[in-house]
Amino acid sequence: MILDRILAHKRAELASRKRIMPLNELEKAAQGLPAPLPLAPSIRRSGELAVIAETKKASPSKGILCKNYNPVKIVAAYEQAGAAAISVLTEEKFFLGHPCHLVLVKRAVRIPVLRKDFIIDPYQIYESRALGADAVLLIVAALSPALLAELTKLAGDLGLSCLVEVHTERELSQALAYGAEIIGINNRNLHNFVTDLSVTFNLIDLIDLNKITVVSESGIKNKGDILRLKERGVHAALVGEALVRCAEPGQGLIKLTDFRAGG
Ligand SMILES: O=C(O)c1ccccc1NCC(=O)[C@H](O)[C@H](O)COP(=O)(O)O
């Protein structure tokens, strides 16, 4: 499956990155940076559905999404259009992102910035902090229970929020058992890339929404989807493709969330 291929590549990439930038250098780079912004308060807006607007050039399922990709311009437009937080893909081979995009994006906005990557090693948590991330993605399907616990603890110690991603009931139980406070329900099946919002609707009933912040991720395409998620009590929607494919991604976000306009 694609996740296995991505993770194999990530392991090789990490080995060379650790040689180029040793951990103690990364720790030094993080010193003196402002404290990360907490993600949960930004995306828990009473009665509203917040949007985490994602910037990415490409994806394994859809190929190139945005030809003249300028993540700084995109995220500035997202913030102006009312995004609650930004998600930035930093994975290089499959999404054509880059860690530098995170540095540039963080400088361009005042809302929390999530590093969207495939995090499988404590080194990447230190790296995310040094690059200026406020939050990191932890994918339960990519981690052993012990590693999930270790990375969650380390991220917390460094002040980073964790979006803990699940796709099945089993993964959700694991995430909750390891103290996840923000759960991302991924609507995308990583075996066949099919997205289905009923993944969110099935799992949300198993979550105490007073205690846990819930983000629905992937395949959210229009205002109808946003309304259905809002009605079920989801706190935030993470939207990528539907926005970056727009000639004006900020306008795309406005259209997606403006319930007075048609469409
Ligand atoms: O998007 C993919 O093809 C993909 C494949 C394998 C692992 C992860 C993948 N996507 C990462 C994401 O989580 C999405 O970028 C994110 O949820 C936004 O989804 P969308 O709104 O459908 O672009």
Automatic annotation (TrEMBL):
First-level EC class: lyase
Stored InterPro entries: Aldolase_TIM, Indole-3-glycerol_P_synth, Indole-3-glycerol_P_synth_dom, RibuloseP-bd_barrel
Lyase recorded as keyword: yes
Residues annotated as domain Indole-3-glycerol phosphate synthase: 3-249
Gene Ontology process terms (BP): L-tryptophan biosynthetic process
Catalytic reaction equation(s): 1-(2-carboxyphenylamino)-1-deoxy-D-ribulose 5-phosphate + H(+) = (1S,2R)-1-C-(indol-3-yl)glycerol 3-phosphate + CO2 + H2O
Superkingdom of the source species: Bacteria
Keywords recorded for this protein, A-Z: Amino-acid biosynthesis, Aromatic amino acid biosynthesis, Decarboxylase, Lyase, Tryptophan biosynthesis
Keyword field contains Lyase: yes
Pathways per UniProt: Amino-acid biosynthesis; L-tryptophan biosynthesis; L-tryptophan from chorismate: step 4/5
Entry-linked Pfam families: IGPS
Molecular functions (GO terms): indole-3-glycerol-phosphate synthase activity; phosphoribosylanthranilate isomerase activity
Classification via SUPFAM superfamilies: Ribulose-phoshate binding barrel (SSF51366)
EC number: 4.1.1.48
PANTHER family linked to this entry: INDOLE-3-GLYCEROL-PHOSPHATE SYNTHASE, TRYPTOPHAN BIOSYNTHESIS PROTEIN
Family under the similarity heading: Belongs to the TrpC family.
HAMAP family: IGPS_B
UniProt protein name: Indole-3-glycerol phosphate synthase
